[in-house]
Amino acid sequence: MHLCLLRGHSWKNLPPQIEQPTGTVIVERCWQVPLPKEGKPARLHPRRHRVYRLVEDTKQRPQEDQQLILTQTVPKLGGRGDTVFVKKSLGRNQLIPRGQAVYASPENKAVFEEERRLLREGKPEERRQTRTGEMTVEFLKNSKLVVRMKNNVKWELTKELVCRHFLKELQLFVPPQALKIPEEPIRTWGDHWCEVSVNGIETVRMPMSVVNFERPKTLRYKEWLRRQREAGEKAAEQDGAGEEPPRAS
Predict the structure, then answer these.
(1) Which pLDDT value is given to residue 225?
(2) What angle do CA 174, 214, 166 make, to 5 degrees?
(3) What's the mean pLDDT when you consider all of the chain?
(4) What integer pLDDT is reported at residue 104 of this predicted model?
(5) pLDDT: is 206 or 61 the higher one?
(6) Which distant-in-sequence residues (6+ apart) come within 8 Å of 50 by Cβ?
(7) 3-state secondary structure the chain
(8) Which residues, listed in sequence order, are joined to residue 84 by a DSSP beta bridge?
(9) Whole-angstrom Cα distance, residue 113 to residue 85?
């Protein structure tokens, strides 16, 4: 459907059954129609007042982004329940056909608002993990916690100490009520485990190593020694590979 609309007019003046089409050409008359007397129709010239000048072709407008609600986590876009603005081609051809998003209609917004309310107030079996929670779970599954304790004092590992090392080693804040460690006291170095509850929905069991505390300067020096040793071994291997075996006389 392709219609022309005179400049200065509005689609509100059209019959209700006619909606604004996607391809609309806005034009204006080259010669203005003189004002008629009150109560009389305007007098149009048979040729002059039928000459129009193009003002705008709405087909050439830049397309507006499409508003969608994600039904699942989509990389670089967001998580379930997030409202995003994407190109119409991306929404029509990929997100909606794959079931990854729905239109941001009032009904769909109400559904996801109710889902957010259940996430905050509902029972654990009715709650769903947020996008940030899913990223946190994935991060914990691929991480290992190192707890560094001194050897010149007596110590016993507590939840507060482990939470402090989560923030120091992994830059992750874990409240004590979301952490679980072995019931038997941990007073020596070794490999142990801990469990982290994410939003009270998923629990991740991850390895935890308790090692001797060393100052950062000492750690940097040991790391420098290790790199020097690896570089020397690599150079020795290259020199050995480059030597030719002796020829038999």
Answers:
(1) 87
(2) 5
(3) 82
(4) 92
(5) 206
(6) 44
(7) CEEEEECCCCHHHCCCCCCCCCEEEEEEECCCCCCCCCCCCCCCCCCHHHCEEEEEEHHHCCCCCEEEEECCCECCCECCCCEEEECHHHHHHHHCCCCCEEECCHHHHHHHHHHHHHHHHCCHHHCCCCHHHHHHHHHHHCCCEEEEECCCCCCCCCHHHHHHHHHHHCCCCCCHHHEECCCCCCCCCEEEEEEEEECCCEEEEEEEEEEECCCHHHHHHHHHHHHHHHHHHHHHHHHHHHCCCCCCC
(8) 68
(9) 18
Residue 68 class from Cβ within 10 Å (0-12 exposed, 13-18 middle, 19+ buried)?
buried
Q: How far apart are CA 137 and CA 132, in angstroms?
A: 9
CB-count exposure of residue 51 (10 Å: 0-12, 13-18, 19+): exposed
Triad 53, 59, 64: Cα angle to 5°: 130
Type of residue numbered 235: A
Contact, 66 vs 102, CB < 8 A? no
Please tell me the total number of residues recorded for the chain in this structure: 249
- Phi-psi label, residue 236: left if phi above 0, alpha if psi -120 to 50, beta otherwise: alpha
CA distance 197 to 52: 70
pLDDT in tens, 74-131: 888 888 888 999 998 899 999 999 999 999 999 999 998 888 887 777 666 667 777 7
Residue 90: name the closest of 61, 62, 67 by CA. 67
Instruction: Supply angle C-alpha 71, 22, 54, rounded to 5.
Output: 145
C-alpha closest to that of 147 among 173, 164, 165: 165
Residues 6 or more apart whose CB falls under 8 angstroms from that of 232 comprise: none
